[in-house]
């Protein structure tokens, strides 16, 4: 198989979907890897390193897309990349189609096979290709939130951990999954008071046990959410429903009760956001906006700010699936690996993931019915 690695074009996205070591593994198994020039520069990997691993260096994105049987990316294709779509092409990347109807339609219309990192799901329910970036984003949410609480950025001027004689900030995390757990680790490490709101009682018991009572857990319901939001200095949205839009758990009315200069970081913004006042996606260049006196941080590719760490963490998780697809071919790979099959969002002109189909208002077709 020919695997293509184009350079990411999303604004200030410096990650890359394969590293030279991964390219070398593919080449050793008899595959061909074509890498766009400078695709890895932002993550610290040179063209020379890719070439030494056996990859072919292409001058343009068009050459990579036209040559490859499978394109491996980090972020969802932008509209200017839709022109490269063609029937039979395999696209393996984060797709987040629930919040990208235009992309879903383009995949269907061009009969592209779209496999989404974020919906590959193990029998246990875990999301192995979402975990590493959720770990990064969860930790970054506190790092960024602490920064924007500074008065210079329009925040309340509050230090997360306080100092002796001065109380720490109140950090409220909605969702106790991978993002929420990693956010809690960071916030507690900085000395903040932490509240995690979670709907799953077993998960709350787990958090209470792991953190040995150093944080408080609350059952997720509108009353508890409203009370916690009102008291928060930093509010972190960490809710995910695989393949679907994030549920809007924090209303605009709740946000109006927050302290002036408080900060909201919604990690679920790439899935539509779980906070009603997150009504736009921001960039690393212009990451925040103010609404109701509250600073909103809504960057959809948070891990892109730490590309070296993020690229290594992501490719550690993705390379095995890339090797399966390349060596077995698409149909055999998804037949042999049910977790990978759950990652298929589009194939042969139809949407093959139920939650995605519901989110984008398109018909759902079971994957097995369209396999050869």
Verbal overview:
The chain folds into two domains: 2-120 and 307-370, 3-Layer(aba) Sandwich (Rossmann fold); 131-305, NAD(P)-binding Rossmann-like Domain (Rossmann fold), CATH 3.40.50. α5 (131-148) crosses α6 and α10 (307-328) packs across α11 (330-336). With 372 residues, it is an alpha/beta fold. The mean pLDDT is 96. The chain has 13 helices and 15 strands. The radius of gyration is 21 Å and the shape is globular.
List keywords for this structure.
single chain, alpha/beta, Rossmann fold, 7-stranded mixed beta sheet, 13 helices
In terms of DSSP E residues, the strand content is 15-25%
- Could you state the order of secondary-structure elements as H and E? EHEHEHEEHEHEHEHEHEHEEEHHHEEH
Mean pLDDT: 96
CATH class of the largest domain: Alpha Beta
**What's the total count of β strands?**
15
Q: CATH architecture of the largest domain, please?
A: 3-Layer(aba) Sandwich
């Amino acid at each position: 198989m020919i695997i293509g690695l184009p350079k990411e074009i999303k604004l200030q996205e410096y990650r890359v979907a394969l590293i030279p070591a991964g390219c070398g593994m593919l080449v050793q198994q008899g595959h061909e890897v074509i890498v766009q020039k400078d695709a890895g520069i932002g993550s610290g990997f040179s063209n020379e390193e890719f070439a030494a691993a056996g990859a072919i260096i292409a001058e343009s994105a068009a050459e990579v897309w036209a040559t490859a049987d499978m394109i491996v990316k980090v972020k969802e294709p932008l509209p200017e990349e839709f022109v490269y779509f063609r029937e039979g092409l395999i696209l393996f990347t984060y797709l987040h189609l629930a919040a990208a109807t235009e992309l879903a339609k383009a995949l269907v219309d061009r009969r592209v096979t779209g496999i989404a990192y974020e919906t590959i799901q193990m029998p246990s329910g875990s999301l192995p290709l979402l975990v590493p970036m959720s770990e990064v984003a969860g930790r970054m949410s506190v790092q960024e939130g602490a920064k924007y609480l500074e008065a210079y950025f329009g925040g309340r001027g509050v230090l997360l951990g306080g100092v002796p004689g001065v109380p720490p900030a109140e950090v409220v995390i909605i969702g106790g999954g991978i993002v929420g757990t990693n956010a809690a680790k960071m916030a507690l490490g900085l000395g903040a008071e932490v509240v995690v709101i979670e709907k799953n009682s077993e998960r709350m018991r787990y958090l209470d046990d792991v953190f040995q009572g150093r944080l408080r857990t609350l059952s997720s319901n509108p009353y508890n959410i409203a009370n916690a939001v009102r008291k928060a200095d930093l509010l972190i949205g960490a809710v995910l429903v695989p393949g679907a839009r994030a549920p809007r758990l924090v209303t605009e009315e709740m946000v109006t009760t927050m302290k002036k200069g408080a900060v909201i970081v919604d990690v679920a913004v790439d899935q539509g956001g779980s906070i009603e006042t997150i009504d736009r996606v921001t960039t690393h260049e212009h990451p925040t906006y103010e609404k109701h006196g509250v600073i909103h941080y809504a960057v959809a590719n948070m891990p892109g700010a730490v590309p070296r760490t993020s690229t290594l963490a992501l490719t550690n998780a993705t390379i095995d699936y890339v090797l399966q697809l390349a060596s077995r071919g698409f149909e055999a790979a998804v037949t042999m690996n049910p977790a990978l099959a759950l990652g298929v969002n589009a194939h042969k002109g139809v949407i093959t993931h139920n939650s995605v189909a519901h989110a984008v208002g398109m018909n759902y077709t079971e994957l097995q019915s369209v396999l050869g």
